[in-house]
Write a structure and sequence with these properties.
With about 260 residues, the protein is of the alpha+beta class. The protein is built from seven helices and twelve strands. It is globular.
Length: about 260
């Protein structure tokens, strides 16, 4: 089973790239973030035409997450349970693998950016992470879990092209990194870090300052898996070339292949 995550930075602006990606890779499930549209404006018809189903948690202007799947899914949550959040940043379903005789929680997140750090945006980011961690703690002993999405977290200084430029950035702030480690330490593997060799495994290159041609990137899109899933991972890819397409998202897709 191939599962991908991709912050598309406007699903309608990037729909041709999405369709081409699905046709080329034939992933079973695609997790999308930053849709920038309400449910009614999501291009479900175009996705349906190539044999995929869409499950959307949209929002006007900003945010929004979705799961695109070859097989029919049941959405189990569209918000972090017991956390009142007016933004669409979470969608959860359950999938099955032949190798695992349990329901598997598959969660797509678009974690708040949090900048600037001297604002309510950063307070919101930390609060979101604390509530997400609390929810994961409540379910981690019940089901295997896959979390994918745009975490807006630079886990360490090795995950950014030049750490000194991000000393005051919410994505690299010590409190952000601490909460990310708290999540990891519940029993997750950071898949890209553990399965891909070398540094510079970037997933994001900003639009400003020639970041893409200079390869000035960050690793902020992640897959986290519990041990039952980690043991079945066969391959991990970052499709960097898609960042170089005309009118590309500033993020690029990540694909994990799990033995079924």
């Amino acid at each position: 089973m191939k599962i991908s995550t991709w912050n598309v930075n406007s699903v309608n602006a990037r729909i041709d790239h999405i369709i081409n990606f699905l046709k080329k890779t034939s992933v079973d499930i695609l997790l999308l973030q930053e849709l920038k549209c309400i449910n009614e404006n999501f291009p479900s018809d175009k996705i349906d035409e190539i044999g995929y189903k869409s499950y959307v948690n949209g929002q006007k202007a900003w945010n929004g997450v979705a799961i695109i799947s070859k097989k029919k899914l049941i959405i189990t949550n569209k918000n972090i349970p017991k956390f009142k959040d007016h933004n669409s940043r979470f969608i959860e379903t359950e999938i099955f693998l032949k190798k695992i005789k349990k329901k598997i929680k598959l969660i797509c997140i678009y974690l708040p950016n949090g900048n600037p750090i001297d604002s309510e945006k950063f307070v919101y980011k930390l609060n979101w992470m604390k509530n997400f961690n609390k929810y994961i703690k409540s379910i981690i002993n019940k089901n295997p879990i896959i979390i994918g999405g745009d975490f807006n977290v630079i886990p360490t200084d090795d995950d950014v092209y030049e750490p000194k430029y991000f000393l005051d950035d919410a994505c690299a702030h010590p409190e952000t990194r601490k909460l990310y480690r708290t999540l990891i330490n519940q029993g997750f593997t950071d898949v890209i870090k553990n399965f891909m060799k070398g540094n510079a495994n970037w997933t994001y290159w900003g639009y400003r300052g020639g970041s893409w041609p200079k390869n000035n990137g960050l690793r902020i899109d992640h897959f986290l898996t519990t041990p039952e899933i980690t043991d079945l991972i066969k391959n991990v890819k970052i499709l960097k070339e898609i960042r170089g397409y005309e009118k590309a998202s500033d993020h690029t897709p990540v694909i994990i292949e799990v033995e079924n």
